[in-house]
Amino acid sequence: MIKTSYQNELLFSDTLKKGSQGPDVRRIQEWLCLSALRYPQAVLTTAIDGQFGPATERALQNFQAVLKLPKTGIVTSELFARLSAPLSTAFQAKPTVSDTRKAVVQVAKAHLNQRSAEIQTDDGQNLGPWVRGYCDGFDGLPFKWCVGFVQTVLDQVASAHGRNFTSIMPQTLSCDTMALSGKDNGRLLDSALIRKKPDRIRIGDVFILRNPQDNDWFHTGIITAVLGDAIETLEGNTDLKGGSNGTAVFARVRNIQNATIDVFSIEGL
């Protein structure tokens, strides 16, 4: 794979417990909060401050209880692997189908199934291990991670077939850069065209939302089904309202007649 920053999110070699502090404690706290999305009945959410105090210890013990492990309140490399398993599972998922387009949908669904999401704190938006994995080690407000999600999925599929996704688009975190490259290489299908000929859209292709007022591309995702004027999608950094700077990976249905949606063909990926 080209996008390998996710591997840094899986590194852990120390044993941490109450009284520990620092970046590794913060990572544990991030994963405890993210685990609350997977185990809503467990009390796992705690402050993300890098201080391993009594609240972090209790949240960790609650996580151990979910896994039916001894409630030691101590983080070993083995326990951290269990905390970060959703990310390792998603980023290391390999397609089991030979058809490239179906493989793209399959891998994208692996990220959805592992509850890919950003950390929500008072420190801002677009934070956490999933965002850093998608955005080449970066997180924070400027890093809207929808493109990073799309290119991670394409990277996983292409590398599984011995190819590079950069053969069809540049590695980037920018919707504009991706769309303009599609215009240059003839892969970008304009919204006006696909409204007239929706049969030109195929599963696995990448949709890109565009503001028709200034032709700014601002959000992207992967098309998983085409149903006439409706497309089903998987999108990173969106929300239940379909926003372009949301909190997680969501499956959505979009109407190509009601929004300015251009489509980037992945043919030959």
Automatic annotation (TrEMBL):
Database matches in Gene3D superfamilies: PGBD-like superfamily/PGBD
Protein name (record): Peptidoglycan-binding protein
InterPro entries listed in its UniProt record: Peptidoglycan-bd-like, PGBD-like_sf, PGBDSf
Domain Peptidoglycan binding-like residues, every copy: 21-83
Organism: Spirosoma aureum
Superkingdom of this protein's organism: Bacteria
